[in-house]
Amino acid sequence: MRVLLIVNASASSVTARRRVLIQKIFAADHEVEVAETNRRGHATALALDAARSGVGAVVTLGGDGTLNEVANGLVGSATAMAALPGGSTNVFARAIGLPDEPTDAALVVADALAAGQIHPIGAGSVNGRVFLFHVGIGWDAAVVEIVERHSEMKRYAGHALFVAAGLRAFFQTYDRSRPHFRVVHADGRSIEDGSFAVVLNLSPYTFVGNRPFNIGSEVTLDRPLACVCIRSMKSMMFLRLMASALGSGRFLQRSAAADLRTDLDSLVIEGFGPVPYQVDGDHLGDTERLEFRHLPNALRLVVPPGLRFT
């Protein structure tokens, strides 16, 4: 099989040695080409070219942002996609059960390719852009914006940088005193006091160290989207909601301060003025309207043994 290995050399866990080892792992059974990204959007262009030229699989060594770009290039094509964890958090790769170490993950993916373990998965779409695991609206997008301003520290600071950015956004930069948007569901029901929301295609929402951060545990790659809308960001309530997400999640799912809807084929978020948003960990600026759709069987994923879709 022809395999394209797309590498983001600036990702925090990518080294020259790992790149060479991973290339050798796939070259044992496949015709491998390697391409490095050098600008934002480059991975999408590389994936598009690969799909058009009949490449069998695109393997991504980078963070969640690079993987998102590859997904946008492969959506609707016959070319399979595989994720290797090369970033600081690697939400998607960890959520589907891959090892944290990139070389170990490459061995698992190579075995899955040899066994033909390629399955169609659903994806989300927001304003025409595909997402694999989530879109954050409001506070967490403000967090991602701060992290991206200090991206040179991600390789060394890791999760500590995200914690510091989260505290800064919570106490300094994000206005928690008022609602920022409404969430309009396809059945006409709406939430008029949204302060922070996440639209999910896969759970968990993220990881804190080794602990999954679950705000919608019923979300899987073969079901439609879920939306969690936080309606209050008062300090004590928000802390209780976040603590719940690190545990069973029951308080968050039952609290009047949060609204959880699952199995959504579409929804719209309308801002009361510009609101920040991020897609699979990439800050995309501010907007006043976000239109979401679920895309069933949008991508073909190389899956590790034991991954369950239900």
Tell me the structural class.
alpha+beta
Instruction: Specify the overall morphology.
Output: globular
Main sheet, how many strands, which sense, barrel? 14 strands, mixed
Overall residue-averaged pLDDT value: 91
Q: What's the number of helices?
A: 10
Oligomeric state, counting identical vs distinct chains:
single chain
Helicity range: 25-40%
How many domain modules?
A: 2
CATH class of the largest domain: Mainly Beta
Structural Rg:
19 Å
How far apart lie the N and C ends?
Answer: 29 Å
CATH fold name of the largest domain = Tumour Suppressor Smad4
Query: What is the total tally of β strands?
Result: 16
Beta content: 35-45%
**Contiguous runs where pLDDT drops below 50 for at least 5 residues:** none
N to C succession of SSEs: EHEHEHEHHEEEHHHEEEEEEHHEEE
Instruction: Please identify, by name, the CATH architecture of the largest domain.
Output: Sandwich
Characterization of this structure:
The chain is of the alpha+beta class. The protein has 2 domains: 2-116, Probable inorganic polyphosphate/atp-NAD kinase, domain 1 (Rossmann fold); 129-293, Tumour Suppressor Smad4 (Sandwich), CATH 2.60.200.40. Helix content is 32%, strand content 35%. It contains 10 helices and 16 strands. The strands form 2 sheets. Strands 1, 2, 3, 4, 5, 6, 7, 8, 9, 10, 13, 14, 15 and 16 form a 14-stranded mixed sheet that branches. A two-stranded antiparallel ribbon has the order 11-12. A hairpin with a 2-residue loop joins strand 11 and strand 12. Helix 1 (16-27) runs parallel beside helix 5 (102-114) and helix 2 (42-52) packs parallel to helix 3 (64-74). The chain is globular. It starts with a strand and ends in an 8-residue tail after the last strand.
